[in-house]
Write a structure and sequence with these properties.
By secondary structure, this protein is an alpha/beta fold. The protein is built from 13 helices and 13 strands. It has 2 domains: about 130 residues, Enolase-like, N-terminal domain (Enolase-like, domain 1); about 220 residues, Enolase-like C-terminal domain (TIM Barrel), CATH 3.20.20.120.
Length: about 375
């Protein structure tokens, strides 16, 4: 394909309720959508960078700027653009994995639509639907948390993840376990809020028989996670630390993780996400698909990824109404606690034109010529 132009569209979606983690509270998503325009087809993607550089060093204004000024000129210089060619072409630009992931996905979506291939089949999916988990933010009180968890279980979610931080960990986790019983699939996510010195305190979570504790320490402290894994019984899962298949392999060899959360935007795209999946599978390390409060565009691709064979734990692949009263695509809906993998070519979904226009804050089209 020849890449003729790329549209960078900013939309803003309010969340149905504030989402609080150890690094801040979100009330809306400022989303950068990417549309790759080729003679054969158009492809869509979503950049998962947040409004501020709190989860990572990337943020949405910077992602748009680096696409415009550094990444797109390299793609436009290629005679032929394919999804597989995007990564090597953008490799000279250091970092900016979320921006690179969005461009790779948009190009890959266009390529697959042009050839009639489903995104899930291209990645190697083996399921037509995936188990859906839900991430529950930090609440103002334990009773409020119990009410929220009860609602998600009534909706059919198959796994509950609780965000934790110092001062909001042992008590709320214990309350959820006591209220909903030992059969509940329950895990926690610290988003780097602790240090290795907190190991004795984190060990107090061991009696609750959690599936895992996600990213308890700083993302650069892989060795600290290996040490922590020897001090607590709860399996350690890495999230922010894993940015490539090579780093995943090193973390596994160090004993820093028993489980890996794969977020395609964080690792530079779905092709690298598949490589991480393969590395983990080869080492007997299960994986699951993380979420970044995606719209239906990003959710469609995530659901396809989560259908690969080594995604054996429910991911943060929630229904659209978990976050948005109006998604930008037709909503993803829970069916017996699962989401269906889209069946159309490419990512299998398209933005709803009227909804897209109503949510658009700005549009920038960058042409090859």
């Amino acid at each position: 394909m020849k890449l003729d132009a790329v549209e960078l569209r900013r939309i803003r979606l309010p969340l149905v309720s504030p989402f609080r983690t150890s690094f801040g509270t979100q009330t809306a998503r400022d989303v950068l959508l990417v549309r790759a325009i080729t003679p054969e087809a158009e492809g869509w993607a979503e950049c998962v960078a947040m409004e501020e550089p709190l989860y990572s060093s990337e943020y949405v204004d910077a992602a748009q700027a680096v696409m415009r000024e550094h990444l797109l000129p390299r793609l436009f210089a290629l005679d032929t653009v394919t999804g597989a060619a995007v990564g090597p072409a953008l490799h000279p630009v250091k970092g900016h994995l979320m921006a690179k992931a969005a461009l790779e996905t948009a190009v890959l979506d266009a390529e697959l639509r042009a050839t009639g291939v489903r995104f899930a089949d291209h990645l190697g999916a083996v399921r037509d639907a995936v188990d859906s988990g839900v991430s529950v933010g930090i609440m103002d009180s334990v009773p409020a948390l119990l009410d929220a968890v009860s609602g998600y279980l009534d909706a059919g979610y198959r796994r509950i993840k609780l965000k934790i931080e110092p001062g909001w960990d042992v008590e709320p986790v214990g309350a959820v376990r006591e209220q909903f019983g030992d059969d509940l699939l329950l895990q926690v996510d610290a988003n780097t809020a602790y240090t290795l010195a907190d190991a004795p305190h984190l060990a107090k979570l061991d009696p609750f028989d959690l599936l895992l504790i996600e990213q308890p320490l700083d993302e650069e402290d892989v060795l600290g996670h290996a040490k922590l894994a020897r001090l607590i019984r709860t399996p350690v899962c890495l999230d922010e630390s894993i940015t490539s298949a090579r780093i995943a392999a090193a973390a596994i060899e160090l004993g820093a993780c028993a489980i890996v959360n794969i977020k395609p935007g964080r690792v530079g795209g779905y092709l690298e996400a598949r490589r991480i999946h393969d590395v983990c599978a080869a080492h007997g390390i299960p994986v699951w698909c993380g979420g970044m409060l995606e719209t239906g565009i990003g959710r469609a691709a995530n659901v396809a990824l989560a259908a690969l064979p080594n995604f054996t734990l429910p991911g943060d692949t929630s229904a659209s109404d978990r976050y948005f009263s109006q998604d930008v695509t037709a909503p993803f809906v829970l069916e017996d606690g699962r989401l269906r993998v889209p069946t159309g070519p490419g990512i299998g979904v398209d933005p709803l034109p009227d909804v897209l226009e109503s949510l658009t804050a700005s549009t920038e089209t960058i042409s090859a010529n």
